[in-house]
């Protein structure tokens, strides 16, 4: 595990393009000054000991030294010891619908993005809980195994799109069954499946799968995304909307009745998401009611400083920059390491 002890100092990297800009400006200004004295080629012949390549090399050595020094200040570290940490929390498997209908814009910015925003905020509120992520359309796939690594959860969440599942549809039952197999063996922890979908075009017995989850003590909570009135489905990369075989614009509607039936069978709650955060607050209250148990997680408890090797690199670069002269040394004039 690699990290920086003081990552805020990485903002100092912004000084590097400023250094390049300053150096380029200095070169341009110097060339203008030389032209005022006469023809640049003639002036260069009058100063045979001046080497432009040496000047460039000195700058880039100093530039590299500054860049590496910034990384030294930021404090690069590698994790050296894994430790098992016990925390009290619950387990949550999120099943996110990524079918094409989730691109409808009856919820801003669209159904899928609204769901991702809500999950991102929910993840930020977790401290001791474990979370996993399943995406589904015509089939279901595990995007992130259950974990307490919330940074990875948010990273995977941000990359989700309908293109992740090639088979279109809404296989809610398959997603619930996959979630049931994704929990840890810990029988003491409260477990729940959070299903976010518009409930349209379900292709399997989702109610039966939810009932099977409830029989194992795992609740199934549903978040309905969309409006019952429906909305067209935008076609990516154009201003057109998806059409059926007869050329009519497809209108996708939130199937609230189906969502409510699944939630009832899974002994969970149903809540409809809108352009506010009310659905998020309702879900958080429901999760807070769940039984919490000790959760074991592997974390790095000790980190080794790795700045020493970088500091040596900085020292060598500065020494090299110092010993390279702007002018060709008369003693080593015949040594052709640098041409004019």
What's a concise summary of this model?
By secondary structure, this protein is of the alpha/beta class. It is 39% helix and 22% strand. The chain folds into 2 domains: 2-75 and 306-323, no CATH class; 85-297, von Willebrand factor, type A domain (Rossmann fold, 3-Layer(aba) Sandwich), CATH 3.40.50.410.
Q: Could you give the topology of this structure?
A:
Elements: E1 2-4, H1 15-37, H2 40-46, H3 52-74, E2 76-89, E3 91-97, H4 111-125, E4 130-136, E5 140-147, H5 150-158, H6 172-180, E6 191-197, H7 206-215, E7 219-225, E8 231-232, E9 251-252, H8 256-265, E10 270-273, H9 278-288, E11 293-305, H10 307-323
Parallel strand pairs: 3-4, 3-6, 6-7, 7-10
Antiparallel strand pairs: 1-2, 2-11, 4-5, 8-9
Helix pairs in contact: 1-3, 3-10, 4-5, 6-7, 7-8
What does this structure look like?
Helix 3 runs antiparallel to helix 10. The strands form 3 sheets. A 6-stranded mixed beta sheet has the order 5-4-3-6-7-10, with helices on both faces. The mean pLDDT is about 85. Helix content is about 40%, strand content about 20%. Strand 4 and strand 5 form a beta hairpin. The protein contains 10 helices and 11 strands. The protein is α/β, with parallel strands linked by helices. It folds into 2 domains: about 90 residues, no CATH class; about 210 residues, von Willebrand factor, type A domain (Rossmann fold, 3-Layer(aba) Sandwich). Pfam families: BatA (PF07584), VWA_2 (PF13519). InterPro entries: Aerotolerance_reg_N, UPF0353/GerABKA_families, VWF_A, vWFA_dom_sf. It comes from Tannerella sp. oral taxon BU063 isolate Cell 6/7/9.
């Amino acid at each position: 595990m690699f990290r920086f002890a003081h990552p805020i100092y990485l903002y100092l990297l912004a000084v590097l393009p400023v250094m390049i800009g300053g150096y380029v400006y200095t070169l341009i200004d110097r060339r203008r000054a030389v032209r005022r004295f006469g023809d640049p080629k003639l002036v260069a012949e009058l100063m045979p000991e001046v080497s432009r390549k040496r000047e460039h090399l000195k700058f880039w050595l100093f530039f590299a030294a500054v860049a590496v020094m910034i990384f030294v200040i930021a404090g690069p570290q590698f994790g050296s010891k894994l430790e098992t940490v016990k925390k009290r929390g619950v387990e949550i498997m999120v099943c996110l619908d990524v079918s094409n209908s989730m691109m409808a814009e009856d919820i801003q910015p669209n159904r899928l993005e609204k769901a991702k925003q809500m999950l991102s905020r929910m993840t930020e509120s977790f401290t001791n809980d474990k979370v996993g992520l399943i995406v589904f359309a015509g089939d279901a796939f595990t995007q992130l195994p259950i974990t307490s690594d919330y940074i990875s959860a948010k990273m995977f969440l941000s990359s989700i799109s309908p293109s992740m599942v090639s088979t279109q549809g809404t296989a809610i039952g398959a997603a619930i069954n996959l979630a049931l197999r994704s929990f840890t063996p810990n029988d003491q922890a409260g477990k729940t499946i959070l299903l976010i979908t518009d409930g349209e075009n379900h292709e399997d017995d989702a109610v039966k799968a939810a009932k099977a989850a409830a029989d194992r003590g795992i609740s199934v909570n549903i978040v309905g995304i969309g409006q019952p009135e429906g909305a067209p489905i935008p076609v990516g990369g154009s201003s057109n909307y998806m059409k059926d075989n007869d050329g009519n614009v497809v209108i996708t509607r939130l199937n609230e009745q189906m969502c409510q039936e699944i939630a009832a069978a899974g002994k969970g709650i149903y809540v409809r998401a809108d352009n506010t955060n009310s659905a998020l607050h309702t879900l958080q209250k429901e999760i807070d009611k769940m039984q919490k148990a000790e959760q074991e997680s592997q974390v790095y408890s000790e980190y080794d400083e790795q700045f020493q090797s970088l500091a040596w690199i900085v020292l060598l670069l500065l020494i090299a920059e110092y010993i390279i002269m702007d002018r060709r040394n008369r003693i080593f004039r015949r040594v052709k390491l640098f041409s004019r």
